[in-house]
C-alpha cells in the first residue's frame, strides 16, 4: 500500500478513468498468454526458417515443444555511445540461455537515433516519431511468435519508451529491460554549459567548444547529465522492469556483464512454462505508472516523459493525464540534484546511493506503492538494494542500500528535500495547456510578464539574438514546432542564447509548442503548448508586443489582450513546406498527419 492518501486518491482516479480500457487490455493478454508460444504449431517450413541459422544444439532444442526461447530486441549501433556496448550483449545472452538449457535469438533490431547528434539539425524532426517506429519495429520481430519471453536492450530518449510500448503490445510475454549504463564522468556539465554560453556570446571559437563537448561526451555509455536517457533507466527500475540496482552501472565492467547474465536467467524463470509467470502487461499497471511518475518528480527528470509516460500507459490500457502528473508533482519532494538541476552527474548520484537509496526513502515515507508486481518477482522493497559483483567475479551480490546518503548535496531524504515538490507542472490559461519544469529555475525567475517576440523557426530567433535585437524583457514565442508541424523537435540551441540574456539582467521566458526535454535549464519555459499552432491553437494568434504572463508557481499561461480583439484575431499562417522533404522527412508525412496531441502522448497509435 501507499500511505500517502493524496497519492492513493490520484491512483484511484486513474484506475477508475481507465477501468474499461484496462479490462479489455488485461483480458486480451491473458487470453493470448493461455495460448502459449506457437512454435509447436508452426508448420515444419515455418519452424525450419525460424532456426535455419542456429547451431545444432539450438536447432535440436527449438525443434521440441518445451525448450524456452528468449527473444532479444536490440537497439545496438556503434555510432551512439549509449548503445555501442550492446554489441556484445546478444552473445552473452545466448550463452547464458544455453547454460540454462534454453535458447535465445535476436528477434529484431530497432533504430536508435541520438538527439545529441541531431540537436538543432533537420534530423531532430524525426526524433519524436522514431519512438513509434521503434515500437513497430520491435513488433515486427516479435510477430514471428517464436518466443516465451523477451529482453529489451535500449537506453536513450525515444528508444526505451518505444520498446515499452512494444513490450506492452506483446504484454502476454514476460519482459526485462537490460541497460548499458552511463559513461564515466568527463568534463563537468556546468563547465560544458559555461563554454556553450561563451560560444553563444562569441567569446570563444568552435575549436574551444568542440574540445569541451568532446571532453564531456568521451566514451561508451549514456551522457552523464540527467536528461531523458537516464530518466528512462530510473523509470525502468522504479516500475519493476529492470533487475534491482542495474540502472547506473558503467558499461564494459564485470558487474555490468554479470547483471546482463542475471537478467537473462530471470527472463527465462518468469515464462508461462514455469511457476513464476510474470507477463509484462501485468507488471505495468496503474500503481507502477504512478510509481514511475513519482520517481520522475523525485529526481527532477525529463519533461519528455509528460508525453512518453502517457503513451506508455495507454499501451497498457491506462489513461494518464497531464493533470495527474502535475498533481503528483505537488506531493512529491525533490530528492536528487543532478545536472541540470544541480552540478553533479548521474555517476555521482549512483555513488551517493542511487536508485536503492531513493526507492527506500520514498517507500519509508509512504510515497510509492510497494505492493506491485515486478519482473524480479517481489514487491518494490526488493529494489532497495545496491548491486555488487559477487565473490566469484561472475555473479551479482546485493546489499541493502546505505542508511545515509553518500553525498547529501546530490541525494537527500524526504525529511530534508531540496524542494517540497518535483517542480514539473502543468500550465493552464487562455493560451491552452503546457508543461513547465521549474526545478532548475530560481524562484524569483518563475514569474515573467513581458511583451512577446514571435518566431516561426528557432533559427530566426538565433539570428535576432546575434543581431542584438533581443533587448529588454520579453517572452520568446517559438511556434509551428509541434508534432503536426514538423515532428516537435527539441529546441536546445535556444538555451545558451536565452541564458546569456538572463545573465545580463533581462527577464526572459520561452513559450513554444515544441520540446526542450530533460535538459530544460534555468530559463522558464512553457513547452508542449497544446493545441499547437498547426492545429489551430491560440498560440497561433500571438503577435509581437502582446503581453504574455507565465506563472510557474501558480500554473498559469495567459495572454493579456482585450477579449473581443482576441476573439476576432485570425490565426497566423506559416509556410511549412521546407519541413516536408530532406533527410527522410518525406517518409514521415503520414506521421505528421496522424499524430495525436502532446497531452495524449503525441502518438500515431
Largest sheet, spatial ordering of strands: 7-8-12-11-10-9-13-14
Number of helices: 23
Proportion in helices: 25-40%
Number of domains: 3
Question: Could you give a short account of the major beta sheet?
Answer: 8 strands, mixed
- Kindly name the structural category: alpha/beta
Q: Which geometry do the CA atoms define?
A: globular
Mean pLDDT: 93
* Rg from alpha-carbon coordinates: 24 Å
Uncertain spans, ≥5 residues at pLDDT below 50?
A: none
User: Between the first and last Cα atoms, what is the distance in angstroms?
Assistant: 33 Å
* Percent of sequence in beta strands: 5-15%
* Strand element count: 14
Walk me through the structure:
This protein is of the alpha/beta class and 605 residues long. The protein has three domains: 5-35 and 68-184 and 219-400, no CATH class; 185-218, no CATH class; 424-600, IlvD/EDD C-terminal domain-like (Glucose Oxidase, domain 1, 3-Layer(bba) Sandwich). The protein contains 23 helices and 14 strands. It has helices at residues 5-17, 19-35, 44-51, 56-63, 89-99, 115-118, 127-142, 159-169, 189-200, 206-216, 228-238, 254-269, 280-283, 286-299, 305-315, 322-331, 346-352, 354-364, 458-466, 483-486, 494-503, 563-568, 589-594; strands at residues 69-74, 103-109, 149-153, 175-178, 385-389, 396-400, 424-429, 432-437, 447-455, 474-478, 508-512, 525-530, 547-551, 556-560. The strands form three sheets. The chain has an eight-stranded mixed β-sheet. It has a four-stranded parallel β-sheet with strand order 2-1-3-4, with helices on both faces. Strand 5 (385-389) and strand 6 (396-400) form a beta hairpin. Helix 5 packs across helix 12 (254-269), helix 9 (189-200) runs antiparallel to helix 10 (206-216) and helix 11 (228-238) crosses helix 14 (286-299). The longest helix is centred in the N-terminal third of the chain and has 17 residues, at 19-35. Belongs to the IlvD/Edd family. InterPro entries: 6-phosphgluc_deHydtase (IPR004786), Dihydro-acid_dehy_C (IPR042096), DiOHA_6PGluconate_deHydtase_CS (IPR020558), ILV_EDD_C (IPR056740), ILV_EDD_N (IPR000581), IlvD/EDD_N (IPR037237).
